[in-house]
């Protein structure tokens, strides 16, 4: 069984349209695929798909300056991950934004959309939560 890979340009166009793509990394790294979509296009249905079929953490990649603005400090005091993945403390949107426990697909989609909102501030989130910000490099 062969696989057909799309070009990076095709994947970017799909992401712009709100589609989810699978990004595979190098076999010498983790040799895995990640479900990726634009944060501003995320929906509860997309989160549910990720949780059901991806079966991993729901992460949100953010620029370093955004992590600083939201006071998203490192999850680990001393990161010993061989890959150096920069996990920030996990977050949920504060219940004042209409969320409950943070675990539902609705709550996680709300958290992601809030984290990318220019108006959001650190007090809009509770820690720890169910969305895992990654500081982009």
Top keywords for this entry?
alpha+beta, DHBP synthase, three-stranded mixed sheet, two-stranded antiparallel sheet, 4 helices, 5 strands
Would you write up a description of this structure?
Strands 3-5-4 form a three-stranded mixed beta sheet. Strands 1-2 form a two-stranded antiparallel sheet. 27% of the residues lie in helices and 19% in strands. The protein has four helices and five strands, in the order αββαβαβαβ. Strand 1 (21-24) and strand 2 form a beta hairpin. With 137 residues, the chain is α+β, with helices and mostly antiparallel strands. It has helices spanning 8-16, 44-54, 64-69, 105-115; strands at residues 21-24, 33-36, 59-62, 91-93, 125-135. The chain has a single domain (8-135), classed as DHBP synthase (Alpha-Beta Complex). Helix 2 (44-54) packs across helix 4 (105-115).
Summarize the topology.
Layout: H1 8-16, E1 21-24, E2 33-36, H2 44-54, E3 59-62, H3 64-69, E4 91-93, H4 105-115, E5 125-135
Parallel strand pairs: 3-5
Antiparallel strand pairs: 1-2, 4-5
Helix pairs in contact: 2-4
Q: If classified by CATH, what would the architecture be?
A: Alpha-Beta Complex
- Return the domain count: 1
| Proportion of strand residues | 15-25%
CATH class: Alpha Beta
Beta strands, count: 5
Number of H- or I-type helical stretches: 4
- What is the SS-derived class? alpha+beta
Offer a concise description of the structure.
This protein is of the alpha+beta class and 137 residues long. The chain contains four helices and five strands; from the N terminus they run αββαβαβαβ. The protein has a single domain, classed as DHBP synthase (Alpha-Beta Complex).
């Amino acid at each position: 069984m062969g696989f057909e890979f799309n070009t990076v340009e095709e994947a970017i166009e799909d992401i712009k349209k709100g589609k989810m793509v699978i990004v595979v990394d190098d076999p010498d790294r983790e040799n895995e695929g990640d479900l990726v979509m634009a944060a501003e296009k995320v929906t509860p249905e997309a989160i549910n798909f990720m949780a059901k079929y991806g079966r991993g953490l729901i992460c949100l990649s953010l620029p370093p300056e955004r992590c600083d603005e939201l006071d998203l400090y490192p999850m680990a005091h001393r990161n010993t991950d061989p890959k150096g993945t920069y996990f920030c403390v996990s977050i949920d949107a504060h219940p004042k934004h209409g969320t409950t426990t943070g675990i539902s697909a609705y709550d996680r989609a709300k958290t992601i959309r809030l984290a990318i909102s220019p108006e959001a501030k650190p007090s809009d989130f509770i820690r720890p939560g169910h969305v895992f910000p990654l500081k982009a490099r």
